[in-house]
Amino acid sequence: MGVLAIAMNDIRLLLRDKAAAFFTFLFPLLFAMFFTFVFRGGGGGGGAMKVAVLDEDGTRGSARLVSEIEADSALKARRVADSLEGRNLVRRGEVTALIIVPRGFSEAADSMFTGGQIPLEAVVDPSRGAEAAMLTGKLTELAFRQMSSAFTDRSRMQEMLEGSRRRLATVAPEGEPGREAFTKFLDGADALSQELSRRSGDESTNDATSSDTAAFNPVNVKVSTLAIDKTGKPRSSADFAFPQGIAWGLMGSVVGFASSIASERRRGTLVRLAISPLTRGQILAGKALGCFVTCVLVQVLLLAVAMAMGSQVGSWPMLALAVFCAAAGFVGMAMGLAPFADSEEGAAGIARAVPMVLAMIGGGTIPLAFMPPFFETLSSASPFKWAIVAVEGGLWRGFTLREMLVPCGILLGVGAVCFAIGVRRLRWE
Amino acid sequence: MLVRMLELRSIRKSFARRGSVDRLVAVDGLSLAVGRGEVFGLLGPNGAGKSTTIGMAMGLVTPEAGEVLYAGLGSPSEAAVRGRLGVAPQSLAIYDDLTGMENLVHFARLYGLRGGSLTSAVSAALEAVGLADRAGDLARTYSGGMKRRLNLAAAIVHNPDVVLLDEPTAGVDPQSRDAILGMVRRLSSEGVTVVYTTHYMEEAQRLCDRIGIIDHGRLLALGTVDELVALHGGETLVRITRAGGAAEQVIRTTDPVAALRSAMERSPPIDGVRIERPDLESVFLSLTGRTLRD
User: Fold this and answer.
1) Which of A144, A376, B58, B171 has the fewest CB atoms within 10 Å, counting from its CB?
2) Residue B78's closest chain A neighbor by CA?
3) Any chain A CB within 8 A of the CB of B87?
């Protein structure tokens, strides 16, 4: 009976502590649901990587590839008219990469039997490495699919073989042995094409990346990074790693501040502040200022280390604006969290969970492209995401003041809303 | 004549009760006035409403009804009024990770002290509570009694006109208790008004010029110790034992000297006498039917 009484009392105490109950029951549930959505694609077809597509070739072949890119469920493509537009989309972080189907694409595709390589270019956002790697694989797959379709499209194959034979005919006499070998190869390819064309009525030949073609690499996907420094060299990896580090640092400051309010309430020093001649607004302003200075110092420290590791600041005024807005936004968030940390234990729970949740929905743990579409919408509410965007905007994305308005506006807006909620709900005793 | 410094006018405060629509009335229409330079004791058992009353007096808790007024100053909801109050909350409202001096410097700054006046005020407060020699040590290294004294020092560092002390001697060693009580007497002698809550009867009896006894949020009696005892303490008990092992004789009287004189005239001769005068405990018992420690 006594054992039962102890057990029941412990459970009752757990349920009375709202923060502890949340992290014991609700948080694991949310966590599990999050990964369930990620792994099954949220039941809505999964997330898709946003890309811009530029068709510089303007041929039937390039149009076919662009259509395939647009139809691919793993990609969410938007056509752009020129390279500048596409690069700006990447720079602003609106798409992961710009895919360029370069001039001469079709010609190169037609000459693949005489050593030509299907050329594709991708200009990727350097801060989204995981997604860029996936894109390279996807483009290779799509290019191979072009080859495969060439084999099963008899008339196109005929065109390609004829073109190749014509080019072989122009080879100089000293290249005679090679010409003979290629002529035999072309004859064989012709026979293979006839056979595949005959079967194509009932067989799929799309698996162009099968082992039969494994040693054959006629696709050349040229990936370049968007970011280059003032000297034209690729930017330091610190440029891409530190903004995320800064966001984590800001989260640490937020948690520290929220915990300190809980700690002051437990100690009674919050009461002493409340009965001082300062108004509550002044007290909260003092608290917020402390948090703000900490947030700024964290960012300055990390940026200094980033610069020591080779990072170059693109625009000091924009970076300063980003640092200010990120600090202000996170101060608001800290104030919003403070009332929910009734005890230091509760604050510790928040310390564990909130950064994780915000990083999760902000793309800090799993790239947003791998998440269900609604997470992308949800991520727009994560200051974590916007702090990174703003700092990157000042550091290397080359944001203009107008482009900074979105991340900075969201940071300040979320901060103001959270601050208001926190001030309203804060208990002083 | 009482020059009013603090006035509580029919103040009331209730709190929501978990799992009940009824509210817990902590203070129920309490009215009293405290004079300038007076040490006023608010006496009552735990849960009587002392801390809520003090909370309203310090401006931390807003009364649902009634008002709190400081003569010549106004309501404690005004920041300027709070600047003239010194408060030692029941909890040890100090920073363990700061030294005693750093704590006082921080709190003094909240009251606008700067420069030389800040330094001298902090030194004086540390001296007053006997912590000058430990001023540079972290508060976390202090004993419970020393922390209480630092808590009190934080209440007086800015030389307030009124000091509100909520159970300032709870759980302290006798040495610290004596230091705190001495401090309160010193404040009073300097003309500072002190409102002091406690459930230690002997402390209130030793220290307070007047006492208000509250229970269930209501003021049951108000006056000096002698007045309260005379009005509510009941009769003095004279316990007499006589030679030869006779049973103890208990006489209830308002005039113990006359009763004793009369007893001495009878035989057998008196072997021992014990006079139990009524005190605040008996006042409280008579008013509430409970003892102060209930």
Assistant:
1) B171
2) A277
3) yes
ipTM score assigned to the predicted complex: 0.83
Question: Within an 8 Å CB–CB cutoff, is residue B109 touching chain A?
Answer: no
The residue among A74 and A372 whose pLDDT is bigger is: A74
Q: Which of A268, A274, A279 sits opposite B91 (nearest CB)?
A: A268
Of A272, A278, A279, Cβ closest to residue B89: A272
pLDDT value of residue B38: 93
Which residues in chain A are contacts of B55 at CB distance < 8 A? 429
pTM above 0.95, yes or no: no
How many other CB atoms sit within 10 Å of the CB of residue B145?
20
Pick the CATH number of B1-84+162-176+184-232 from 3.30.420.40, 2.40.50.220, 3.40.50.300, 3.40.309.10: 3.40.50.300
Is there a contact between B60 and A272 if contact means CB atoms under 8 Å apart?
Answer: no
What band does A228 get if pLDDT is binned at 50, 70 and 90?
A: low
What number of other Cβ atoms are within 10 A of residue A336's Cβ? 24
Interface membership of B122 toward A (CB under 8 Å): no
More confident residue, A235 or B111: B111
> Strand ranges (DSSP E) for A263-364?
none
Q: What is the dihedral of CA A265, A266, A268, A269, to 10 degrees?
A: -60
Backbone angles phi, psi at A186, to 5 degrees: -65, -35
The partner residue sitting opposite A269, judged by closest CB among B76, B82, B95, is B95
